[in-house]
Amino acid sequence: MQPNKSCRIFNSDSAMKKTFILAFALLTLLSCSCHQPVLRLASYNIRGNQERDGINQWQFRKDTLTQIILRKGFKLVGLQEAVPDQLADIISLTGYKWVGADSLYDPIIYDPSRIEVLNWDMFWLNEGNVPGVAGWDGKYDRYCTWGQFKDVESGKEFMVFNTHLDHRGIEARPKGAALICAKADSLKKALYNHKDIPVIIMGDQNSWDNTETYAIYTSHYRDARAISKLVLGPLGTAHNFGGVHPVRIDYFFVNDCVEVQEYNALDIVFGERYDHFPSDHYPIYIDVLFK
Asked: Where in the sequence is the domain holding 10, given as residue range(s)?
């Protein structure tokens, strides 16, 4: 007895339809599971607590500044000029945690619901990593706080280096930048055995983008603003509480494992006449995906 060809055709079509439906469902599931949430990282020179600042003293700025961190969804922030009482206020008002050396001014704060700390330390920006010693021709002792972190939503690990280069030392700035780049490379190799891992350098570099310092950074890393898919806000970032035209001295530098979706410099003002600033620098942030 010959098989019924129409039945064979019908069964084959049915099987193909089922296979297609299963394959489509699997692809949909995979595309959903592979979707990586954007992570928002910020750098913010918050201006130290100076009595001579008058109406711009910390007590008048702290509520607005911490609300920016929360409302803009900064999940990790490299702070500069954060003296201990300012850091204590920020941690209290945000509920964030922090890493960094006690009584120094460049901590990294983070939202513990999104970020996990795996490791952290700091190093001094001078010839011999000597604590409390200004490097080269710098006026002040400068350093870099670094952390090894994990985004708990994506499971991706990444490294952050937060610093504030010297404002006077002509030699100290490029030397400090070169040291940070070298240290970032050696730490990445030591922790990940030459495996590619996202690296972000952030902070107040006290350098314009036509300087040797900038050239050193961009010979190793990419300027996040230059490669971002979307750029918002002004170019300049430091403005002396509105007293000068903003100049660009705050940056993110990233390696090839970081895809920058958005860069923004937030020129936020507050007060009845909208003439007060949360700091003498704008906060800058990037939305990133890790490759």
From this structure: 1-35
